[in-house]
Amino acid sequence: MYGMEVPAYNTLVDVSERVNRDFLEKEGGDAERLGSIQRVTAERHGAIRVGSPKEMSQVATVFEAFGMYPVGFYDLRDASASSVPVVSTAFRPVDAEELALNPFRVFTSMLAADDPRFFNAEQQRKLQEFINARTLFPQELLSLAEKATEQEGLDGAEASTLLDLATASFELSSEPVDHAWYRELESVSAVAADIGGVPSTHINHLTPRVLDIEDLYARMESLGIAMIDEVQGPPSWQGPDVLLRQTSFRALSEERIFKFEDGSVGPGALRVRFGEVEQRGIALTPRGRELYDRMVVDVDKQLQETGGVRTDVARQVWQDNLPDTEAGLLAEGLAYFEFDLAPGQAPTVPAEVSLKALLDDATVQASPIVYEDFLPRSAAGIFQSNLTGEGTKDAAQKGTEYDLETLSKIIGRDIADPFHLYQAQVDASIARLAEKLNTTIINDTFLKENSDHV
Question: What Enzyme Commission number does this protein have (predicted)?
Answer without folding.
Answer: 1.13.11.93
